[in-house]
Amino acid sequence: xxxFWTGRRVRLRGVEPEDWTAFMGFAVDEExxxxxxxxxxxxxxxxxxxxxxxxxxxxxxxxxxxxxxxxTGQIVGAVGSxxxxxxxxxxxxxxxxxxxxxxxxxxxEAVVMLLRxxxxxxxxxxxxxxxxxxxxxxxxxxxxxxxTEEGHxxxxxxxxxxHHDLVVMGILADEFAQLHGSTVVTPCTSPGPGSxxxxxxxxxxx
Length: 206
Known about the structure:
There is one protein chain. By secondary structure, this protein is of the alpha+beta class. The chain contains five helices and seven strands. The chain has helices spanning 20-32, 43-55, 106-121, 136-145, 173-180, and strands at 10-13, 63-69, 75-85, 90-97, 126-132, 148-159, 162-172. A hairpin with a 5-residue loop joins β2 (63-69) and β3. The radius of gyration is 19 Å and the shape is globular. The protein starts with 9 loop residues before the first strand and ends in a 26-residue tail after the last helix. 23% of the residues are buried.
């Protein structure tokens, strides 16, 4: 059976220690594209971060995943969920793609897999994304995915020497299902006679 985390173009997987060079490259790409500017970070800093991510447990429903291209096995980006609020059923997500891997459908497929997991398996009701108003490519991608603009914050962030607008976009679980198919991940199959689910009704004692 094909893994839930594998699509036609990419698969999502955990971050490995050896991924540090890819993440360092993503940081360079963001700087060159005029994104938020940060002080230079050492190679050892990226090594330490990927080692930490490789063994980190998910913080509730907040986690980061590497996006790997199926045809090359190369890491082309990263995607993750954050600011998850189980009570309200709302979460935010973020994605970054290497400069040489954009406009190839990788980001779209990665986002659909992440949202399908959060809506179907984690039972969230709404996803929000915050996008710089100057990032027309990202705004267009989110519209294609079915996101609706819910807020436009003027001069809300500062980078590249001036203030920029921030656009808040959102999509509901049922809207996602209508556009991208059922949010059901995989029907439960009958386990073997020796399989029990811990804590399940009818499971025998210790």
